Amino acid sequence: MSRDFSRTVRVADQIQRELALLIQNEIMDPRVGMVTLTGVEVTRDYAYAKVFYTTLGGDENIQLVEEGLKHAAGFLRSQLAGKIRLRVVPQLQFVYDESVERGMKLSRLIDEAVGKA
Q1: Pair 51, 95: CB distance under 8 Å
Q2: Residue 47: half-sphere exposure toward Cβ, Cα within 13 Å
Q3: How many helices and strands, by DSSP H and E, does the chain display?
Q4: HEC states along 52-86?
Q5: Topology, domain 2-116
Q6: Are 22 and 80 in contact (CB under 8 A)?
Q7: Which residues form a coiled coil?
Q8: For residue 85, how far is the Cα from the chain centroid?
Q9: Strand ranges (DSSP E) for the chain?
Q10: What is the value of pTM for the model shown?
Q11: Are 36 and 54 in contact (CB under 8 A)?
């Protein structure tokens, strides 16, 4: 069982590396600007992959980037099929990662609390 888990993690890491390169070098959509992939979760059967990303800008920029990534998902999946060797290349679902933003807010709150003490 642990062997299957480690393979899933390795596949997710490989997908993250390859997608980062593809987004940087192949996607020409102006909506997809500075995107950082923060993680990938792959289902056990490798049918689906949640790709977590962050981007610079406000809420309207997040919406534009998400639309651009969803539009490019089919292209990215086909390019990914040529880069990695899997029987089934997972369908990509892009999800904005709010953890970085939440971490910055918590850090700011801690700094304010320490400053008052």
Answers
A1: yes
A2: 2
A3: 3, 3
A4: EEEECCCHHHHHHHHHHHHHHHHHHHHHHHHHCCC
A5: GMP Synthetase; Chain A, domain 3 (3.30.300)
A6: yes
A7: none
A8: 20
A9: 35-42, 48-55, 91-96
A10: 0.82
A11: yes
Other beta carbons less than 10 A from residue 90's beta carbon? 23
For residue 60, give the amino acid letter. Answer: E
Would you say residue 79 has pLDDT above 60?
yes
The single residue listed with the structure tokens 């642990």 is: 2
Distance CA 10, CA 8 (A): 5
Amino acid type, 45: D
Q: Tell the residue number behind the tokens 């609390």, with chain if given.
A: 113
In Å, the largest CA–CA distance within the chain is 58
Tokens of 89: 């290349």
